[in-house]
Amino acid sequence: xxxxxxxxxxxxxxxxxxxxxxxxxxxxxxxxxxxxxxxxxxxxxxxxxxxxxxxxxxxxxxxxxxxxxxxxxxxxxxxxxxxxxxxxxxxxxxxxxxxxxxxxxxxxxxxxxxxxxxxxxxxxxxxxxxxxxxxxxxxxxxxxxxxxxxxxxxxxxxxxxxxxxxxxxxxxxxxxxxxxxxxxxxxxxxxxxxxxxxxxxxxxxxxxxxxxxxxxxxxxxxxxxxxxxxxxxxxxxxxxxxxxxxxxxxxxxxxxxxxxxxxxxxxxxxxxxxxxxxxxxxxxxxxxxxxxxxxxx
Length: 297
Ligand code: NAP
Hints:
Layout: H1 3-7, E1 17-19, H2 30-42, E2 47-49, H3 54-57, H4 59-69, E3 78-83, E4 85-86, E5 98-99, H5 103-116, E6 122-127, H6 136-148, E7 152-158, H7 162-171, E8 177-180, H8 187-190, H9 193-200, E9 205-207, H10 214-217, H11 221-237, H12 241-250, E10 257-260, H13 265-273, H14 281-292
Helix pairs in contact: 2-4, 11-12, 11-14, 12-13
The structure holds NADP nicotinamide-adenine-dinucleotide phosphate.
């Protein structure tokens, strides 16, 4: 049994996760948001990734309105959200952006997410960024209290180094580290986070798998190089650059869950199509080489 199944027996994220960072930009009315969720579910995407701060603190409520309009959807999905960033906004005029993993703040944000998402429980809550002032033992007590109250089923982190992950994991079992990875952002391959995920059997979640759209629109040398290489491979394999990018991520042995960012159902389809595309090592390294700008040593 892997560490994940031993410690998190009830957490089975869908292979592709839908991200809601940009939902406020999609300009969907409530009925359209319900339809969007239904179509994602029909594609086998049953995990939805949120954060308290997305859409200037408005994104969770947009999704929650859809769940209030169609309450039966909640039982067919897993809700992931994040907290820990105090982001300046009109309603929150902090002097500067900063991080907060104190008991009072984490509890307050979790309870707010429950209200906004119209749900009784969050399936997975991540600490969004590493808080240098985090007291790991105290934060673990907060996790245990909120889990004991039935408010959060599982906990994890995002953007944490391997040692930051290990520190908190020692005090409370974490389910995942959500990190950035794409042919345009290769750090996780070398910085130990994916090694640790594989070592612990804890599947990572991957954000900005298409480089936030830079894969298609970027005109910097790296984006031009990667797009040209991926276009050639995609044409040979009879697929799209987007599907190829997801397949490139899925090929990693840590068994990542890529998180989509698209508002288009066709975009979700391109992600799901990657589950049937296994890259060989030459194609995988050709994309890596284009991303790095030099061959393997
Ligand atoms: P992404 O897939 O790298 O980028 C999505 C962007 O690419 C969208 O604007 C999308 O526009 C565009 N796009 C997709 N396919 C395209 C195509 N074929 N041609 C042109 N543009 C295309 O993902 P992301 O939104 O940056 O991140 C995904 C999710 O990861 C977020 O929703 C969020 O849940 C999570 N995230 C987490 C963190 C963290 O710190 N933990 C940070 C950032 C994001 P369309 O809608 O038009 O397709």
